[in-house]
Amino acid sequence: xxGTDELVGAGAGGAVGNGAGFWRACAAAAVPADRARxxxxxxxxxxxAGLKEPERVVCSGSPRAAVALIRGLRDRxxxxxxxxxxxxxxxxxxxxxxxxxxxxxxxxWAATGGRLWESTEALVERIRRGVLEGSADGRGNEAxxxxxxxxxxxxxxxxxxxxxxxxxxxxxxxLAEVCRSAGWWWPFAGVAVVSERPVALHRDEAGRLDRGDxxxxxxxDGFALHAWRGMPVPAAFLTELRALTPERIRSEENAELRRVxxxxxxxxxxxxxxxARPLHxxxxxxxxxxxxxxxxxxxxxxxxxxxxxxxxxxxTYWLRVxxxxxxxxxxxxxxxxxxxxxxxxxxxx
Length: 349
Fold this sequence. Notes:
Elements: H1 4-11, H2 20-28, H3 35-48, E1 56-60, H4 63-72, H5 81-111, H6 113-135, H7 142-150, H8 159-162, H9 173-181, E2 185-187, E3 191-195, E4 200-201, E5 217-218, E6 224-225, E7 227-228, E8 231-232, H10 235-240, H11 246-251, H12 255-265, H13 267-273, E9 278-282, E10 285-290, E11 298-304, E12 316-321, H14 328-335
Parallel strand pairs: 1-3
Antiparallel strand pairs: 2-3, 4-5, 5-6, 7-8, 9-10, 10-11, 11-12
Helix pairs in contact: 2-6, 3-9, 4-6, 6-7
């Protein structure tokens, strides 16, 4: 999921525009930064803020590398983020709010940046956490790193906000150029530090980081985040998934990781391989239960589709139901939002 085609077109001189599809592609871009365009955007943002351009613009391979670089800079001067980003955003938002009114602004935001904000915000927070975990050395530097991360201008991840405003000209033009060209960046009086974009981004249908055979998010310098359906996992954990056994799943003390193991292994396969016995069986299906130490039990109903497949076979479905479920009928009824007494289908499918 990269949006590469749209970004290549824009980078080659294509129309930029403010379409939601374009900004969505910017936020999800997993292609190398256009460093020349990013630097031009940074310098323009300084000029538009009424500031002197930075003496130099330095590039880094990831947000983690940028934080390490900034901590070592002695000539960076104070942060100018307030002037470069906060002030122009406030000005444009106030102008548009006055033009559209409260209800109009709310509808406009919902139709533009609001669509991108939720998934992008979650990704930003995950990157911040990953940088912090990979940079803190246990010697009291955590607070400093947190502040630096909050001081970043988000580059490509500012796309949700830029989607709501005109950006071809005006106070946000420099910020928009960096968004189209690079990742996070940090503006200081003497120097600006710009991060690369990721080179890989894998997400599930819900927009969560998700990959079972490698990093879900990776930067060119090696900084990477691993996740399974949005849940952070250690890199070595993914390798272990390929050789799982029921015994290994039961021995995992971390309840969240054990849940991931079960999902990857497959509930049906686990039930068969672990010698589980059914709790209850009736005409609606079979109720199974997996007891897990330190976690709520997994309770599932095995249901046979009454409609045959083209080859005459009947497909089996597994429905996860609340741990309090005691009968198969109760479990199937729960999936339809009904009480067991009222659930009496003429034909089960």
